[in-house]
Every structure is written in structure tokens, then in C-alpha cells.
Amino acid sequence: MQETSLNSDLFKQPHRRYNPLIGEWILVSPHRTQRPWQGQVEKTSQEKPPTYDPTCYLCPGNPRAGGNLTPNYDSVYIFDNDYPALLADTPEANFENKGLLVARSERGLAKVICFSPRHDLTLARMEAKDIRTVVDAWAEQYKTLGSLDFINHVQIFENRGAMMGASNPHPHGQIWAEEIVPNEPSKEQAAQAKYFQEHGTRLLEDYTNLELQDKSRVVVENDEWLVVVPFWAVWPFETLVLPKRAVQSIPDLDAAQRDGLADILKRLTTRYDNLFEVSFPYSMGFHQAPTDGKDYPHHVLHAHFYPPLLRSATIRKFMVGYELLGNAQRDITAESSAERLRSLSEEHYSLRG
Ligand code: H2U
Ligand code: ZN
After folding, report:
1. Which residue's C-alpha comes closest to atom 12 of ligand 1?
2. Which residues of 23-60 are buried (b: 16+ CB within 10 A; e: fewer)?
3. Are 60 and 79 in contact (CB under 8 A)?
4. Which of 135, 171, 293, 342 is the most exposed place for a label (fewest CB within 10 A)?
5. Which of the 8 DSSP states describes residue 107?
């Protein structure tokens, strides 16, 4: 296989990039970034939320839908989702007709995790020591939920901002735990296992070391963590958060790695907010080893950030047309996105005079 330097013409022309983590290709069209835009412009809210909102169901002391009360909490608060997508007591059932109509029952649990009692904060504006408390809570939830015999996968995630469908600006995330390993982590498991078998090393550990040498896609790093716009990124400012010392899941992180994770999450989300001077919307989540009791020596814990914004606080990328019918496509290269994020300040724009 011929090695091609990133300065070569290949990367200035329409080209395809391979995502080894899920075994799929994306199309990159770097010559296209100058095209004019007369399409949809999203509304942004520049209003600063209050520290306490009497109408917010996640603020301390307030009633939630369905009659439950959010107690007076002072750091992290976790509760069972009042409208869970999965239920623990769903009876087992199967349906199949000629292999064309196939359905299976699915059991699970859904939790909501409030990161802070303060309605106005976000990961970017919380203190790193308070994000560390969130990291510890994530670890505990993965362990507790994962130890239940009907739970084989624990998905921890955050939807941030109305554009990503978050129901509320109060800083919070969700946890969905279930019987099966869902599609995305399942593709990643297959690819990581195959790579481990073929190379005897871990795919994401090798990738981390490669990016640490190359540097062109690095957004931010500390002693324990590396954030890159992955070579195969689909979303304009998509990032991958990788540990420098490989572990399988959040509970495996030692104290230095947990503090480091809190630090890197704060710094990354601050850079995101500073990009368009807006509380940057995204979906983020961790991929940890499945909790079915099997061995996952090939797996490396990581987090994905998928932000929808493209050119400004109001212009988002749409996954339509060719993306829906063909495959994912981007204009701005991963390297240019990384350079933009890297050049930003780590002082939150709201704190500047
Ligand atoms: P978002 O992460 O998309 O904002 O969703 C928040 C969750 O909070 C959502 O799954 C739950 C919704 O079911 N929720 C409650 O559990 N209680 C409520 O009173 C409102 C929302
Ligand atoms: Zn609130």
C-alpha cells in the first residue's frame, strides 16, 4: 500500500476516508467549502439562564412530570427516567416471519443524571472538580447497572442544546442500559476484535499513538487524554476523546485519569462554546466494554462528540440526500476543523469582559 502524505493532492481533491472503527467510508469534498448558503438558519438563544428556574423539572425542590419530586440536591442527582424507553419487566417474546419481519422483546433501564443543581451551568462552565464528581457517578452507574444479569450494555450520553433535541438547558445526561449491545458499539466491537486478532494490539491504542505523533488532528490534550477530530470524522466538528493509558471502561480509570477526564471535558466543551460564541449543541457519549461478563481485551474506552453546527451558531449540517441514500459526506477536512478548534481560547467567552 502506498503511503500518501497529507500535503499530497489526494487530500485537496474529492476523496474517501475509511472509518476503521465501524468499517464504513465517508466522502470528503474539500474544494466545496466556498459554496453560498441560502438555506435554513437556526435560531439561537443568547439569553443567560437563571441559576434556578422555578419551572425546571431538574432544579432542586421542583416537581417533575408524573408527580415525582426532584429533591434538594447539592452535587449530582440521578433518578429513574419518568418516561423510560426501556422497561425492566418487559416479558420475553419473539416474532419472525420468513426472516423478513423480525422482532424481539428488549428489557432495560433508563436513568437521568443531573450534573449540577445549578440551572445555568454546562460542562464548559462547571468547575473541573465538580465534573470529576460526574465522572465518579458515571463509573458507579456503569458498575451497578452492568452487574444486573439482564443488562449487557450501558450507554451513557448527553444531548446538549435544543438543536440536538435536549428537552431542558439544565445540565444533565442520560443512561440507557439494556440486554443487547446496540448497533454502533456492536460495529465497534467487531472491528476492534478483528484488529486485535490480526495485529495483537488495540485499534484505538494504535490510533491514539499515531495521532500523538502526527498532531494535525489534535484539538487538546493533557497528561492522560487526547482529543482529536478523527481522520474519518463525519460531523464538521466531531471529536473523539481517547485515553493515553488504555482502559476498557470508566470504573477502570484511576484517580489521575478521572481528574484528567474532567479537565479535558471542560477544556473541549469550552473550545466548542468559543467557536461560535454560543452554548454549543452536541450529542456526546462513552463507549465502554459490554457488561455481559465476557472478556473485551481489544476494547478501549472512548467518548464521541457529535455537534451539528457547521459554519456559525445558526448554520447546521444536515445529514440528507446523499448522506441518507449513499454515505456520509463532509466539505471541511478533519485537519482544518482540528486547527480551528485548536486555535481557540480556553477562557469561556461568557467570562470575557
Ligand atoms: P434529554 O436528555 O433529551 O433532555 O431528555 C431528558 C429526559 O428526561 C427525557 O428522556 C426525562 C425525559 O423522558 N424526563 C423525566 O424523566 N421527567 C420529567 O419530568 C421530564 C423529562
Ligand atoms: Zn433547572
Report:
1. 83
2. eeebbbebeeeeeeeeeeeeebeeeebeeebeebbbbb
3. no
4. 293
5. B
Length of the chain: 353
From the CA of 167, how far away is ligand 1's center (Å)?
A: 7
Atom number in ligand 1 closest to CA 157: 2
Dist. CA 290–CA 225, nearest whole Å = 22
Q: How far apart are CA 118 and CA 80, in angstroms?
A: 20
Cell numbers standing for residue 102 = 423480525
What are the DSSP E strand ranges found in 73-205? 77-80, 94-97, 101-104, 108-114, 153-160, 172-178
- Is domain 65-178 classified as CATH 3.40.50.2300? no
User: By C-alpha distance, which of 92, 97, 118, 127 is closest to 107?
Assistant: 92
What CATH topology corresponds to 182-345? HIT family, subunit A (3.30.428)
Q: What digits encode the pLDDT tens for the residues 26-68?
A: 999 998 866 665 666 666 666 788 999 999 999 999 999 888 9
Probe residue for ligand 1, chosen from 81, 123, 282, 283 as the CB with the greatest number of ligand atoms within 8 Å: 81
3-class state of residue 169 by DSSP? coil
Contact call for residues 78 and 172 (beta carbons, < 8 A): no
Atom of ligand 1 nearest to the CA of 168: 4
Per-domain residue ranges of the chain: 65-178, 182-345
Pairing label, strands 172-178, 302-306 = unpaired
Whole-number percent of the chain with pLDDT over 70: 94
